[in-house]
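User: For my dataset I need records formatted as: sequence, then structure tokens, nothing else. Please produce one.
Assistant:
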Amino acid sequence: MTTLKVLCLNCSLKQQPEPSETEALARKVLRSFQQEGLDTEILRLSDYTILPGTKSNMGLGDQWPEILDKIRACHILIIATPIWMGHSASYVQRIFERLDDIFYNPDLVDRSSGRYFTYNKVGAALVTGNEDGAHEAVRHILWGLQEFGFSIPPNSNSYWVGVAGGQINYTEGGGEHHEYTNKNNAYLVMNSIHLARVLQEQPFTTDFKTIEREAKKNGN
């Protein structure tokens, strides 16, 4: 059986070597994937130059193509983000803006069917914050991932938030030992692995080109 690969994109605004609370949660989850025999990798997007735009390569200095190659190689993609003003961090939106090229670029689809390269990959979300906004961030991430063709398993998100108005973060607040978060971490890991294995054995074979021809023929 193919060794499944997990890629986590950490959308923290903090650059190395500053500690990232989001990365602390993500690494805990990735350790669980490793215990199940999966290969894992985490990238902190603030360490890369990701130019604004909606193409796969925006030109000189753009490092998104390097990240895109890693997305293409993975079986499970996790987007991990802190909460800013009740929403996911700006790097999440940048990911989606750059993935928009999937709708237009023939190099990002199967040549015979037109099916997106993201089909048969699993998507999941991790969120940290010291107040509210986790559900909003998860909604943003998981809806976006499915729009681009990722498959979303049940309970494929986990989060930790502190009390309203508080300044205590994941590591300071004992997030690693928080029962609710750890339970959801386990749901995310087990369900993501299960669906990824199912998709390896029984992949989607949706033929976009045939569907588009039929839709055009039957359109008004």
